[in-house]
Specification:
By secondary structure, the chain is mainly alpha-helical. The chain has one domain. The protein has helices at 8-64, 67-76. It is rod-shaped and about 110 Å long.
Length: 93
């Protein structure tokens, strides 16, 4: 296979084009990495805030669902009373 001889000026121009393209690729790659890292920081902050809100809501749920609170609301607001023992029956299986 025969190659075409390139004159030094043409070879220099081709090398300069390759060098510029390589530099632009490096700049673009660096920019993408930094933009990705900035996005990661935003998402980590959002995850932290959501985790904090989830913990707060879980605590609130446990507070609202506490048995003594339900019993108190049932008696105070709904005027409910526990059933009398005489009305209860134990059923054997």
């Amino acid at each position: 296979m025969r190659t075409l001889p390139l004159s030094p000026p043409v070879l220099g121009v081709l090398l300069a084009i390759a060098l510029v393209a390589s530099g632009l690729g490096l700049v673009w790659s660096t920019h993408e990495v930094r933009a990705g890292y900035a996005r990661l920081q935003v998402l980590e902050l959002e995850r932290w805030q959501l985790q904090e809100e989830y913990t707060r809501l879980l605590l609130e749920l446990n507070t609202w669902a506490a048995p003594h609170r339900i019993s108190q609301i049932a008696s105070d607001k709904l005027f409910m009373l526990p059933p009398a023992l005489s009305l209860s029956r134990v059923i054997e299986q």
